[in-house]
Amino acid sequence: MHHFTYKENELYCEDVPVSEIAGDVGTPFYLYSHATLLQHFRAFDGAFSDVPHVTCFAMKSNSSLAVLKLFALEGGGADIVSGGELYRALRAGIDPRKIVYSGVGKTAEDMEDALGSEILMFNVESSQEITLLNEVAARMGKKASIAIRVNPDVDPETHPYISTGLKENKFGIDIGKALEDYKTAAGLSHLHVAGVSCHIGSQLTRVSPFVDALRKLKGLIEKLREAGIAVEYLDLGGGLGITYDKEEPRIPRSMPRP
């Protein structure tokens, strides 16, 4: 549900004619509904109210300071993929302890800025990134909290160009190799293993791929515990589908437990 409606063939946003706004600000322009954003954030965040959690907004989808500030005031965090996004998140008032640094292109400078800001954790994407982050943290005399992005080899049942969780996709560390990398990271003096992360794709219109991914991650977490590595966070990523054309998203109010 959203707050964009037609009344007598004229588009309104929260009971204000869009044509009136266009006349005031000129065109082209971006128009966001505060009520819609608030409603959707609360619906998503509230779905996890019975478990400790942090809802982190993916800034790559929209880095407007006004949008970020709205979510910050609701207690939301941010999932970032660049130093620029870190800067904007902090400017918007997002608590750095609710910022997760994802993405494949982190530089040493990016890592330094994030460590200096004392973010929640890094989602690391490769063995090489694990090594680099440990080196950067050592130079700064800090300990970086990390989750390893695991590729669970799950079909997200979405368009192949936006699928990120299959074995042949380039993102993350293969789930069969992940335990080895976790043991390596746990043995490094300037890293703290805090979680497990995965992102299986965008525009997901079915819940079953999430459940499949959760089952596989649950098995990995059990192996980590057996190895003496206790994780605090499960970072489950993937874009919930919307109706662009004829899609019929069937995401239930609550997901079944794996």
What distinguishing features does this structure have?
three-stranded antiparallel beta sheet; alpha/beta; eight-stranded parallel beta sheet; 258 residues; single chain; TIM Barrel; disordered C terminus
Descriptive account of the structure:
The chain is of the alpha/beta class. Helices cover 36% and strands 19% of the residues. The protein contains 8 helices and 11 strands. α5 packs across α6 and α7 (175-186) packs across α8 (208-226). The relative contact order is 0.09. Residues 158-169 and 252-258 have low confidence and may be disordered.
Task: Please compute the radius of gyration using only Cα atoms.
Answer: 20 Å
The helix/strand class is alpha/beta
pLDDT under 50 segments (min length 5)? Answer: 158-169, 252-258
Helix content: 25-40%
CATH architecture label of the largest domain: Alpha-Beta Barrel
| N-to-C series of helices and strands | EEEHHEHEHEHEHEEHEHE
Q: From the 3D structure, determine the CATH topology of the largest domain.
A: TIM Barrel
Give me the secondary-structure topology:
Layout (H helix, E strand, L loop, with lengths): L3 E4 L2 E4 L2 E2 H8 L8 H13 L9 E3 L6 H9 L3 E4 L2 H9 L7 E3 L6 H10 L3 E4 L2 H14 L3 E8 L21 E2 H12 L4 E9 L8 H19 L6 E5 L21
Parallel strand pairs: 4-5, 5-6, 6-7, 7-8, 8-9, 8-10, 10-11
Antiparallel strand pairs: 1-2, 2-3
Helix pairs in contact: 5-6, 7-8
